[in-house]
Automatic annotation (TrEMBL):
The keyword Nuclease does not apply. The keyword DNA-binding applies. One of its GO terms (molecular function) is DNA binding. GO terms for biological process: regulation of DNA-templated transcription. Pfam families: GerE (PF00196). InterPro entries: Sig_transdc_resp-reg_C-effctor (IPR016032), Tscrpt_reg_LuxR_C (IPR000792), WH-like_DNA-bd_sf (IPR036388). Residues 161-226 form the HTH luxR-type domain. SMART domains: HTH_LUXR. It comes from Pseudoalteromonas amylolytica. This is HTH luxR-type domain-containing protein. Keywords: DNA-binding, Transcription, Transcription regulation.
Length: 228
C-alpha cells in the first residue's frame, strides 16, 4: 500500500495515519459485513449518526440497482433510490446538501451527499451528517477532502461487496458468446443481423455490469459465473 504524505500545511488537521489504515481496511473488505463493520466503526469513532456508501450497480445503460452499506436508514435508502440521487453520483463533482439532490427533504436535514469517483459507467456516493466530534476534521470542506481521498478505495470495496448476480440480457449474451469465439464486432453484427454499433453497445453494457476493463475480462468473468 502506498503511504500518503502531507504536502500542504492547510490540511494539517487530517490524520494521515488514519487515512492509510482506512485505505488498507477498504482494500481487505470482501463482503457486505466487512464493509458495513468498517463504516460503523468509523461512525462510532468520529460521531457520525449517518455514514453510508451508495453503489448504483448498472444493469443496463438506463437502469441500475442500488446497494448500500453502513449506517443508512431503510426509509432514507428508499429516498436515495431515485434518478436524482443516481445522476448526482454519476455526474456530480462536489459535495451537496442532500436536500438539494432529492425531493424528500424531511429525511434529509443535516445530511450531505458526496459522489465517489469511479471508472466510466460506475456511480456511487457517500452520505453522512456532520459528526459530533467535528473538531476531528475542522470543517465541512475538510470532511469533503477527507472522503475524496478515500473515495476510490471505498467505491472499489463497495463494488467487490455487491450482492446478487450479474444480469446479462439474451442479446448481450449472444454478443459475448461470439466475442468469446474471437469474432470482431463487425463479424458479430453480420451473424446476428444487427449493426456494429449495437454490438459495441451490448458489449459495453457487459463490461460495465461485470466491472471489467475490456471485453476480454468481461468474457472471463461471465465464463467463471457460468453466464455464457
Amino acid at each position: 500500500m502506498k503511504e500518503l504524505k502531507m504536502t500542504n500545511e492547510n490540511v494539517s488537521l487530517v490524520n494521515f495515519n488514519k487515512i492509510n489504515v482506512l485505505m488498507a481496511d477498504f482494500e481487505k473488505a470482501g463482503d457486505t459485513q466487512d464493509l458495513t463493520s468498517i463504516l460503523k466503526k468509523e461512525a462510532l469513532e468520529c460521531g457520525y449518526k449517518v455514514l453510508g456508501v451508495l453503489d448504483y450497480n448498472p444493469l443496463s445503460a438506463q437502469s441500475y440497482q442500488l446497494n448500500y452499506f453502513g449506517e443508512i436508514d431503510k426509509d432514507l435508502a428508499k429516498c436515495l433510490d431515485s434518478d436524482d440521487g443516481y445522476l448526482h453520483c454519476k455526474n456530480g463533482l462536489r459535495i451537496k446538501p442532500l436536500s438539494q439532490v432529492i425531493d424528500y427533504k424531511d429525511n434529509c436535514c443535516g445530511l450531505y451527499l458526496l459522489p465517489l469517483r469511479g471508472v466510466a459507467g460506475i456511480a456511487g456516493g457517500i452520505i453522512f451528517d456532520i459528526p459530533e466530534t467535528v473538531e476531528t476534521f475542522g470543517s465541512i470542506e475538510m470532511i469533503d477532502w477527507y472522503w475524496t481521498i478515500l473515495s476510490p478505495y471505498l467505491l472499489n470495496a463497495a463494488i467487490r461487496c455487491r450482492t446478487g448476480s450479474v444480469n446479462i440480457t439474451k442479446r448481450e449474451k449472444d454478443c459475448l458468446v461470439w466475442a468469446c469465439e474471437g469474432k470482431t464486432s463487425w463479424e458479430i453484427s453480420q451473424i446476428l443481423g444487427i449493426s456494429e454499433r449495437t454490438v459495441n453497445f451490448h458489449l459495453s453494457n457487459c463490461i460495465v455490469k461485470t466491472n471489467s476493463a475490456n471485453r476480454q475480462q468481461a468474457i472471463v468473468k461471465c465464463l467463471v459465473k457460468n453466464l455464457i
